[in-house]
Specification:
mainly alpha, about 70% helix
């Protein structure tokens, strides 16, 4: 079950893209899943105090400090139980902590928290990304792919959703599909995507595939 995301720069981008809170500070971050236009009209309002705690959670998560992130998100939720952003952020932080510690309970609790966020706000695209990561960590690959695809339906240029799908196929030893999605990701961010593919263990089982070797060759 333990699922390592081993390239620091990629993990940093994932942390930003998967974060549950939105703010002006997030604008311009690479491949942040774009929220559907209708969401701003239907989303329940979030109190300012809850949003402040949510931002603290995001900052801790971006530093890979999952315990601190979870604690801050808990404060945001205690302040405003309808803070779907904090529920999603807490969920992915729990899943990532479970990935580090081997705690299946953390991963299961993380999935449940993100599902609560989506029950409150079904169109919250960052929660699709969070749930894709959580399912991926849990080894539920088909569900993970389906949620990465939900992100891509709303944000077709989301590089790391394409890459996330590619890593799943790599882990499965499916070179053909891994290359298909790697090409889609590389078309959007060639340097970072191919560097990640060259170094991450997800693709170890397909490194002798001729098309994969050609694609990732420096």
């Amino acid at each position: 079950m333990k699922y390592k995301i081993c390239l620091a720069v990629l993990a940093s981008i994932l942390a930003l893209a998967a974060s549950g809170c939105s703010s002006s500070q997030d604008e311009g971050q690479p491949n942040m899943p774009q929220q559907q236009q209708s969401e701003t009209k239907t989303a329940p309002p979030i109190s300012a105090e809850s949003e402040r705690f949510c931002q603290e959670g995001l900052a801790a998560y971006s530093r890979f400090e999952y315990d601190a992130a979870i604690a801050a998100y808990d404060k945001a939720i205690q302040t405003d139980g309808r803070n779907y952003q904090a529920l999603s952020g807490k969920g992915v932080a729990l899943a990532m902590r479970g990935n580090e510690t081997g705690s299946r309970q953390d991963v299961a609790d993380g999935i449940a928290s993100i599902q609560k966020a989506l029950a409150l706000q079904p169109d919250y695209v960052p929660a699709f990304y969070d749930l894709a990561l959580a399912y991926k960590i849990d080894g539920q690959y088909d569900k993970s792919i389906s949620y990465f695809q939900k992100v891509l339906a709303a944000d077709p240029n989301n590089t790391w959703s394409y890459y996330g799908i590619a890593t799943i196929y790599g882990d499965k030893g499916d070179a053909k599909n891994a290359v298909v999605y790697l090409k889609k990701a590389a078309a959007l961010d060639k340097e970072n995507v191919l560097e990640a593919a060259r170094t991450q263990s997800h693709f170890d089982s397909i490194r002798n595939d001729a098309e994969f070797r050609t694609l990732v060759s420096p």
